[in-house]
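Researcher: Let's try something more involved. This one mixes different molecule types, so please make sure each is placed in the same coordinate frame as the others.
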Amino acid sequence: MEIKLKDTFFAPRQAMNIAVTIPSAIKRCEETGRIDAFKLQWKPGSTLPQPHVFWDSDVAKVMEGMAYTAASSPEIAQRLDKLVDLVISAQQKDGYLNTHFTVTETDKRWRELFYKHELYCAGHLTEAAVAHYNATGDKKFLNAIRRYCDYICDVFGPDGKQGYPGHEEIELALVKLYRATGDEKYLRQAKLFIDRRGTSPNYFVTEEKQPEIVLPMFQAHKPVREQTKAVGHAVRALYLYSGMADVAEATGDQELLAACERLFDDLAQNKMFITGGVGSRQIGECIGGAGEQVSERSYAESCAAMALVLFTSRMLKITGKSKYADVMERALYNCAISGLSLSGDRFFYANLHACHRGMECQGHVATERQKWYECSCCPTSYCRFLPQLGNFCFRTGADYLAIDIPAAARIKGDNYEVEIASNYPYSGKVTVRVVRGGNFELKVRIPGWCDKYTLPTTGNLKEAYWTLKKDFADGESFDFDFKMPVETVFTSIPSLASQAALCRGPLVYCVELPLTSEISPFELILTPESTFETFPMDELVPGCVGIRFTAKRLRKPDTLYSTQCARLTDISAVAIPYAFWQNREKTEMTIFMPFYQVR
Amino acid sequence: MEIKLKDTFFAPRQAMNIAVTIPSAIKRCEETGRIDAFKLQWKPGSTLPQPHVFWDSDVAKVMEGMAYTAASSPEIAQRLDKLVDLVISAQQKDGYLNTHFTVTETDKRWRELFYKHELYCAGHLTEAAVAHYNATGDKKFLNAIRRYCDYICDVFGPDGKQGYPGHEEIELALVKLYRATGDEKYLRQAKLFIDRRGTSPNYFVTEEKQPEIVLPMFQAHKPVREQTKAVGHAVRALYLYSGMADVAEATGDQELLAACERLFDDLAQNKMFITGGVGSRQIGECIGGAGEQVSERSYAESCAAMALVLFTSRMLKITGKSKYADVMERALYNCAISGLSLSGDRFFYANLHACHRGMECQGHVATERQKWYECSCCPTSYCRFLPQLGNFCFRTGADYLAIDIPAAARIKGDNYEVEIASNYPYSGKVTVRVVRGGNFELKVRIPGWCDKYTLPTTGNLKEAYWTLKKDFADGESFDFDFKMPVETVFTSIPSLASQAALCRGPLVYCVELPLTSEISPFELILTPESTFETFPMDELVPGCVGIRFTAKRLRKPDTLYSTQCARLTDISAVAIPYAFWQNREKTEMTIFMPFYQVR
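Model: All components are placed in one shared frame. Result:
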């Protein structure tokens, strides 16, 4: 099965990943010592940089991305091969493979799971090894990682240490390893890690002597099957839920799947930003409570939005329910991409949902894209995330093709070849052409944001999918038109009462104005009389559509507090897709604007 | 000079302080081991609680409050005397007096100033000792603390360690000690601490080896005289500025005073909450940037609002400028009191400016008042803050009386006795009666919030003060009427664009509704047609005035995001003074509401 994206939104990012994002991530990993760390030369007193607990994961994620793209780039393929050899060279006799604990804190192996990212790094190495094997057919990395995971299964097996990761990730990685090798041991270990989590007495509290630990932060406050609220560290949570979904799928565990659905529902119905961002709290990088999505204080880590895509794409695949596609799409076109600059080499770690000139930066929250972060999970996540975009848009099998997101693409299977022509996400007009026919089921999702649409006269509507199963002839084509008006979107989030965001299709728009502008985006007021028109903004991004709208302007008071309120004046303004903000000069930005519900 | 408050806002809090707040603080200090810590019995392996770096300050602040109130309570006076003996018993031969560093980290004395609160605790002990001496005339505590401060002056004198506190406080305390003893050494040391701060090479970076330290957090990024922006930890900043003001006053240092004014202006014009709260960021308890006052994420530590009163009352005293009185009054009637329950024994550490049912609590941010905090600076600050309220309302001297805040009170001086009759802050009608006449200058401030007022026909208006200097006869009285309509107050804070708060006189109002209410405060919309009427709310607080107002209700959407917007309906609602929120059942609360500027 081969998926080739040809759209203007995702495809250029994939090309940029190969040309810029991956090479620059390799460079940063070299410069910071992350790659040389695998030479294991650091010693106390050494002038070399000391390997950090999460460094291996950064290199592993870049390698995973390199594996996905190796077929299109001989340079990347060669470089990856060398990196694989280097990483393998760091493996210990017993199979252990972790730069930090091999050269520093050598007495701490498996002893501070709650915070030290040890199993997390193992998980990312495993994902990289599986990707490398799938891409090359070469088993050298896979076999090395199997040895490592065999060792992990020994240490943490049913009769071993009863621990589980403080930062989830290895659960889903072990399921990948099981799928790549067919060895059920890895699946059993993934299930063990998941089912142990949060049981009493708590491993972190008792074995690792952390009486003060805030267990919900680690999703370890109760067994995962009993959890109903999405809580704690956002990326940890979403990696866990993804692993739970994988185990549920592989074992047919309906109870575990039901827990996944409950946790998704809580997240999607109460705690998600309009952009698919997750994480309302900077402290602890936490999901936060229901309705706590404060625009100016959004954390909404890029990794968390990408992880939401990982989780929802799994749930979509397992259940076929369109609610997962709706949230996946929301994240894909907005917060999961907004963290990456159009140039491919600058990043937001946290994604603000409102930004003004007075805001101070703190920690991972920046008002301008950064070249790198010391904690570089987000930049390296993009390396592996972008190549998978096609897999999120389409579910493919020998006898079916589900088009969840109708981005322009060519999909070549054993039994069919299909071409999707569209300007999605900027237009809802979509033509699906069967280039090479065959007997299969074709499904096209009616997006959750879409109220009005026209479908081909053939086919059936099954829930949110237009469905047609038949022996397709070569050249048959099907036209869809998902009407894409500009919508004003309201929210139950208390801090955004009587405010509205402009959305069009799957895109969330924002207003950004340069710091030099006399007008602030925070002075714009929407009313029921506001009108909207779309126009091409190719100079921002080829293919991009902007929104010009009429609004009122309410000048902000001259003083911090004032009994004087300015008079409204008429104004027109431009909104651009949120995903593209802060790619020009430094700006102020807002997604939501006050909306006067008065006629 | 004797000031006796008789109003319904402050005076009951003072009585409650003696009856409840101080006794309960003593109890908590006992229960937690803070008082027994002065017995110095803790040892490694001991089952006793280990003295924390800031514990001494908690006990010292309660003792300071006890000293201020000892005259009205024999129990407090007796208890204080015993506490003084206990504290003195912990003093070392060299004068050193700190429970933490005497029994734990004994090798760290004066070595981690940047973070370990050592000089901060010394400052609070000094303030307590001066208060004890002033209250009792007994020098035992004062002399012990002099020995401690003499030792500090030796260690940190001109030729000694070039360090300064990581948490400011001792600067202002040393000026108090100078005033109590007349020994200029203490003033010189205060000035030294202030002028060393932020000089290069930086002491924390080089001497204490903190290359990663965020210096603005500690106001140590540049010399204080060159600082123009109020930055960093809010309480640290305001204690520093207070000490700077004290030194400027005592030495006539105009450059230092100018720095204080610049820092005040930045804070008051850009970074203060409408309630006089300071601190927009929970991380680092920081002031935050200009316009970062996000209601739902306000930190606005109670101690910071009290510290703003300490700073502005000093600046007012030195300069006589009413802008300081305006901000002082704003803090006094709102955020500096909101942290204390009406029952006197429950506290907010952080003061939220909006609170809804979905909000999670984290760290010091609570949605319900707490009995105590492990870091208990705020509860203990109230013990010493409340007795000083009269000193913030009035500036008194042998030949002058400035009424900055016309709370009902009796002020007895050597040359005059004055009675202020008012229902301030609920009414602007004020009568100042000279009970016992004499030759002095009487000044009455025209509050900054007041646009319309009537003054006595005699007297002159000098800037914002009605002024009359003469030989007053017994019984002369002067009537003032500061009109106090309900005002809608707007702000330039971006997150509050097109929103308004209801204020009346110095009081900021909020809407709070119980969690059981079908209506949420976040559904209320103000319009230019909104009408306001005041009514007595004695059942909430005797004397209290509520505001009943008409508004629109905009039901929040049923789902997190929705293209559907409800229709406005008419509603009437009640606002109460912000200072009194969350004293009944658990509620949702907001100060600002969307305001539709449409006619």
